[in-house]
Known about the structure:
By secondary structure, the protein is α+β, with helices and mostly antiparallel strands. The protein has helices at residues 2-20, 26-39, 74-90, 92-99; strands at 43-46, 49-57, 60-67, 103-109, 115-121. The chain has four helices and five strands; from the N terminus they run H-H-E-E-E-H-H-E-E.
Amino acid sequence: MGARLGGIVIGAVVIFALRTAFSPSLNQQIITECDKINKVCPKMVDEGVRLDKATAGDMSITLDYTLIGVQPGANELNALQTLITANFKSDKDVRAMLDRNIKVTFQFHDDKGAVLKSFDVTK
Length: 123
């Protein structure tokens, strides 16, 4: 689940970052990109991990995922947060997005909808 999911998540956000590089209205671009993501949701992004939706906020995007048939412990969820955060901050295109003060929130839910882990990635 870990490394592969981190790469998939980064890939989706890199596309967003590249598209926003020259946008005069970041909030409008965030809304547009969330709409594009939501057109393909729900989408399995890794074994047992489904991207359910993207929600636009003021200079922010929230990505909601469901972990299906997986009951990770706190250590696994913390490791996932560390992996995703490190991948985000090490990717130059994503870092450029974060430098523009766009906050990305990740929310991981169990298959009953309860939030297992929620965290922000910011500059």
